[in-house]
Amino acid sequence: MAIAMNHSVRRLSRLAKELWYRSYLEIGVETGATFNNFDIAEKDAVDPHFLFDAKSLARQSIRYFETTSDHFFVNSHKNKKYDLVFIDGLHTFEQTFRDFCSTLSAIHDQSCVLIDDVCPSDIFSAHPDQKTAYRFRAQHIPGTRDRQWHGDTYKIIFAIHDFFPNLSYRTINSKGNPQAIVWRRPRAAFAPIFNNLERISRLNYYDIFDNLNAFKLGEEDEVLNDVIQSMRKGI
What we know:
9 helices; alpha/beta; 33% helix
């Protein structure tokens, strides 16, 4: 029986194939479900604790950095520019925002950044603490087996929208976990929603629905087509 491809691997593979990418960085690797199954010429993995034998898989073109993302960017990055970056680290706005800002120094004008967990599945999933999210869900939905947790990563969308007008982005909301793709193309008719980073940090789950247009949601194929066409046209 065929095994379904990881949705992240599927999306990354299409971007890499159609945009002729060769280098890849993944922040937040854990079990390696995405990193170890994504085929690209050169790739680097960053995680504080790999849940697999990374040493046995390491090659000259496949490197594993068992450290925090903050430490990696300060001490190990070495000014390398990646074609494609996947941010799937700690599910908090603060860490995701810091990883995103650090990533901007590690990409070039034709790069893409894929950000995981940008749309929580319910109010419990949106809690920034995983154990608390599970506890609240179990209390309110007895017998549930739902283990989805996205944290407050969704706030990164509003931060990018309001403070990075030189970046374009779209959010995939079908065929797997919601993920945003960011690339270096200015947005026309730019106008901030909140214009206040502290206010963004204090948003809650319900604020998502009051500002849903900011996510620029779309089906997987439609979003990927949009990104790829934009990158190829250079507009």
